[in-house]
Amino acid sequence: MKKLTFASALLLVLGVILNSGLSVTSAMAAEKDGIMVMDAWSRARPGGSMMGGAFATIENKSDHPDRLVSVSSPVADKVQIHESVMQGGVMKMLERDEIVLSAGQKVMLKPGSFHVMLMGLKKDLTKGVEFPLTFHFERAGDITVKVHVKDAGAMGGMGKMKMN
Amino acid sequence: MNKLFAFLIAFFLLLSAVAVGLWAAGVFEPQEKASSSVILGVPQLGGSFTLVNQKGETVTDKSYRGKLMLIFFGYTNCPDVCPTEMQDIALTMQQLGDDAADVVPIFITVDPTRDTPEVMADFVSAFDPSLVGLSGTEKQIDDVKEKFRVYAEKVPGDDPNYYLVNHTSYTYLMGRDGKLITVFSYGTPPEKMAAKIREQL
Ligand SMILES: [Cu+2]
Questions:
Q1: Residue ranges of the domains in chain A?
Q2: Nearest chain A Cα distance for residue B1, angstroms
Q3: Which terminus of chain A is more exposed, N or C, with fewer CB under 10 A?
Q4: Which residues on chain A are in Cβ contact (under 8 Å) with B167?
């Protein structure tokens, strides 16, 4: 019994160390060929929820246009690029094939606008959880970032993160 | 036979969409100076409802008499607009301080199939402890939607479980007598909603 408790305590400590190690090295921002993906975040979802959304800022620092053509993540069965639009008071989420980034352009995926739609969640998105999200660009290729799950009603990724 | 039925449904949906559109366009222009919005030519919104709260208890509109109701329709699987509106409602409640005791914020689902009371409990508790989450049978939800002129339409995906729901996104402020005071359009700042509510206290 004692051994077990000790073992689990050890595991817990190890887990904490590993986790903090990971978040230090985790990609808050990742850049490839002039395309930068930063500040990726998501909202906590009710337990057992099927759908989630992820947001991020994408900047094309290169002098060529590029296109975000798809997004993928191991936490969802299906991932789509969505845009929320209001039509005559009716709110709709429409699937988009791509997001075009002209040279030097910065696009924010944010509530009420573009988001990454996570369908068929395989993992509960509770506050504090992190998960990987890979953005596929036509020119720059794949860029993977870590998404931080924030409050259920969080409005942005720029809020102060607790750093330990 | 089926085809005719489908056609009738499509026609009816189209009609209601047009009606909602026309009505929304006319009614929800900013009414800055009006302290109560009298909607001319439009039947009164709201009315009685019987639904199930997040604890699984049956409630009716009368359960909340004597308090103002701040009602929003949506679905918990919506990751963008509904949480944003819930957050705005939570912030409104915070802004009200002690006056919040006179207001019941209510989230009514337009997706009763997936939004069971348990799911609703988890969803509303993430925003404000006073938030009530109401679900019910399809029939009960259809009835309340009709009374509040809420338009909601399932959008089937490739996977039957992943459907989305397009829906109107207004927040309704109801008086202590259960009658409509005003309607806030999506994105109304919490300060504005709180100010409007304070006028009624
Ligand atoms: Cu979406």
A1: 30-154
A2: 31
A3: N
A4: 90-91
CA distance A48 to A121: 8
Size of chain B in residues:
201
Ligand 1 centroid to A83 CA: how many Å?
Answer: 7
Asked if ipTM goes beyond 0.85, one says no
Q: Report CA(B53)–ligand 1 centroid distance (Å).
A: 26
The CATH number of A30-154, from 2.60.40.1890, 2.60.40.10, 1.10.357.10, 2.30.30.50, is 2.60.40.1890
Please name the residue of chain B whose CA is at the shortest distance from the CA of residue A119.
B162
What SS3 state is found at A101?
A: strand
Whether the Cβ atoms of residue B154 and residue B9 lie closer than 8 Å to each other: no
| Closest CB from B28, B162, B167 relative to A50 | B162
At residue B54, the 3 state secondary structure works out as coil
For the segment B174-194, what is each residue's pLDDT rounded down to a tens digit? 999 999 999 999 999 999 999
Helix, coil or strand: residue B167? strand
Q: At A28, is the pLDDT very low, low, confident or very high (cuts 50, 70, 90)?
A: confident
Tell me the C-alpha distance between B39 and B185, whole Å: 15
What's this model's pTM, rounded to 2 decimal places? 0.79
Query: Could you tell me which CATH number the domain at B50-199 has?
Result: 3.40.30.10
- CB contacts of B158 in chain A (<8 Å) are 78
Q: Token pair of B120, please?
A: 């609703």
